[in-house]
Write a structure and sequence with these properties.
Number of domains: 1
Distance between the termini: 61 Å
CATH topology: Nucleotidyltransferase, domain 5
Order of helices and strands: EEEEHEHHEHHH
CATH superfamily: Ribonuclease H-like superfamily/Ribonuclease H
CATH architecture: 2-Layer Sandwich
Shape: globular
Structural class: alpha/beta
Radius of gyration: 18 Å
Largest sheet: 6 strands, mixed
CATH class: Alpha Beta
Strand content: 15-25%
Mean pLDDT: 88
Strand order of the largest sheet: 1-6-5-2-3-4
């Protein structure tokens, strides 16, 4: 029945939308996608990293990292950090933003859904058994591992956690992206901002 697509979706007790459309947005702060990835250190420690990525400019807005599991509280903290990174110390988003994630427990917890909606996010999740529909976030995770994690020493968790801020900063400021015409996320955002500030004659 699973192969034939005849199974019902699992009930999660909440009413977020299922995302099955286009992820890429034409302007920044219209849609953010989020995911979690792991980094295996040489001393058998494992780090879990959660992030939101803007679906237009591809910037990693913020991140949280831990040697434990990513829980709902960490995702809610991540949402607050991301809002403040883009809009300053506000209690609510100035415009609704779609927040896309998979169906991980941290994302679909009742408290996380309620908090997300209370601050102005439009909560969407991928189809069950179809995490590839959050492909932009998954693509970033693969790129980050290829260009930063796998080319640097991973002595232990403490060492890697100390490197993460520099790796993320380098990605945002200097890493070219084919979807941005080989500009880095911040280069693209600066150009976008300059275009928006240009007076119309």
């Amino acid at each position: 029945m699973k192969i034939g697509g005849l199974l019902l979706q699992k009930s999660t007790g909440h009413s977020q939308r299922v995302h099955d459309g286009t992820i890429v947005t034409k302007r920044s702060n219209k849609g953010w996608c989020s995911d979690v990835f792991g980094i295996a250190c040489w001393r058998k420690e494992r780090i879990r990293v959660a992030f939101p990525l803007d679906c237009c400019d591809r910037e990693i807005i913020s991140y949280v990292a831990t040697t434990g599991g990513i829980d709902g509280k960490m995702i809610r903290d991540l949402m607050v950090q991301s809002i403040e990174a883009r809009f300053g110390p506000v209690d609510r988003l100035p415009v609704p933003i779609e927040w896309l994630s998979d169906n991980g427990h941290a994302y679909i917890a009742r408290e996380t859904i309620a908090f997300s909606e209370s601050v102005g996010f439009i909560v969407c999740t991928t189809l069950f058994y179809s995490p590839e529909s959050n492909g932009m976030a998954e693509s970033f995770a693969k790129t980050f591992k290829r260009d930063y994690v796998h080319v640097n020493p991973l002595y232990n968790a403490r060492f890697v956690l100390a490197q993460l801020p520099m790796w993320f900063e380098d990605y945002k400021e200097f890493h070219p992206h084919t979807g941005l015409k080989m500009k880095s996320p911040r280069e693209y955002r600066r150009k976008q901002h300059k275009f928006e500030q240009c007076p119309v004659n």
